[in-house]
Specification:
Oligomer: single chain
CATH topology of the largest domain: Rossmann fold
Shape: globular
Order of helices and strands: EEEHEEEEEEHHEEEHEHHEHEHEHH
Mean pLDDT: 82
Number of domains: 2
CATH architecture of the largest domain: 3-Layer(aba) Sandwich
Structural class: alpha/beta
Number of helices: 10
CATH superfamily of the largest domain: HAD superfamily/HAD-like
Largest sheet: 8 strands, mixed
């Protein structure tokens, strides 16, 4: 069956809500549902190429059903755009947040020639027992890409992207332990999503912001689950072969905009931001810290590339001026020690965690 013969399926992305609003997106595609368990190399390449060669379904009517905490179901209508995306930004009437972070279920409905179709979507509801959230990059922060070692490394990365299943990709060493400590525990959920794995809600909610294309959503979620990493809403990009998506400056702009939206949506939360030095995360995070005083609890930057540039040195000063603790190091075991030292501290301990960050930064500079 060709792409043009297949009926459109809907891929729900992870949503999130607060007491006054709920946001969730989905995409209508005509490619087959992905499988990430192939062993033959040609099947791996075919699966990944098929995933990238997806045909979007525009102008598809989509219905979203949302059930309130008191059991009342509300119905919302949407239509996919030219790229197959449909977004719902719904006003809620003071819905209470759960005491602990959890995933909630919504329903997407649409119709094909085969009849009515349905897919469950999942919405993260941060608990009231924490005032922290974690915002993380993906490439070279949790999954190694090899893009920092010249042309050969870039070519090797394309081989990984086109011929390796998620379970075969290399996680950044120590990320599972480090993120497990940041997560603060949690309980297993009973929800099964696009990637075919149960979603686990952690005490401190996680959000991911990346410049990777939306086509990789299922691939990345599967990778996170196979590595035992916290799963959360993922902000990706709709790629095009143009300056807007391929230019180096667009990486930082996309991330700053996405993080600012999260901060505005959860004004009661302070965030810890985690990234690396391969796509301008230090600079992007510095602008977030400067524009959102008191909202950033700490910044962690994994050093995967060269020594900091003058622009990055200016970013470090901007972060220091904002009074935000900064950790820079090549291995997360050092970040783990720093995390234990700052103890996810509250505002009253700001001087101590800033001092800890300065000591750690001096150690990193001396290496």
């Amino acid at each position: 069956m060709t792409l043009f013969e297949r009926e459109p399926r809907l891929v729900p992305y992870f949503g999130y809500r607060n007491t006054h609003g709920l946001r969730i997106e989905a995409r209508a595609l005509r490619n087959r549902e992905p499988r990430w368990d192939h062993s033959a190399k040609w099947r791996k390449i075919r699966a990944l190429l098929d995933h990238f060669a997806s045909r979007e379904e525009p102008r598809l009517p989509v219905t979203l059903l949302v059930r309130s905490p008191d059991g009342i179901t509300a119905r919302y209508e949407g239509v996919t755009n030219d790229e197959g995306f449909v977004a719902f930004d719904i006003a809620l009437d003071n819905w209470p947040m759960p005491p602990t972070t959890r995933w909630e279920t919504v329903e997407f409905h649409w119709a094909t020639r085969e009849g009515p179709q349905r897919a469950d979507g999942f919405v993260l509801a941060p608990g009231t027992d924490t005032d922290r959230a974690i915002i993380s990059d993906i490439d070279d922060t949790i999954i190694e890409t090899g893009v920092t070692g010249g042309l050969r490394s870039v070519l090797r990365n394309w081989n990984r992207l086109l011929a390796q299943m998620p379970a075969e990709r290399t996680a950044v060493p120590g990320v599972d332990t480090f993120y497990g400590a940041l997560a603060g525990g949690g309980e297993d959920g009973a929800h099964t999503g696009e990637a075919g794995a149960e979603l686990r809600a952690t005490r401190h909610p996680f959000f991911y912001v990346s410049s990777s294309p939306w086509n990789l959503f299922s691939y990345l979620v599967t990778f996170m689950k196979t590595r035992g990493l916290p799963v959360g809403p993922i902000h990706l990009r709709d790629w095009g072969f143009n300056r807007a998506t391929l230019g180096s400056s667009s990486h930082g702009t996309h991330k700053v905009d996405a993080i600012d939206r999260i901060l505005a949506f959860y004004p009661e939360k302070r965030v810890l931001m985690i990234g690396d030095d391969t796509q301008g995360d230090l600079v992007a995070f510095s602008h977030v810290a400067a524009h959102n005083p008191g909202r950033v609890a700490a910044i962690f930057i994994r050093m995967a590339g060269d020594t900091h540039s003058p622009e990055e040195q200016a970013a470090k000063k901007r972060i220091a001026d904002a009074g935000v603790p900064l950790w820079t190091g090549s291995a997360y075991d050092g970040g783990q020690a720093f995390l234990e030292e700052i103890g996810l501290a509250h505002d009253g301990e700001a001087e101590r965690i800033v001092a800890a960050a300065e000591r750690n930064d001096k150690k990193s500079a001396a290496i």
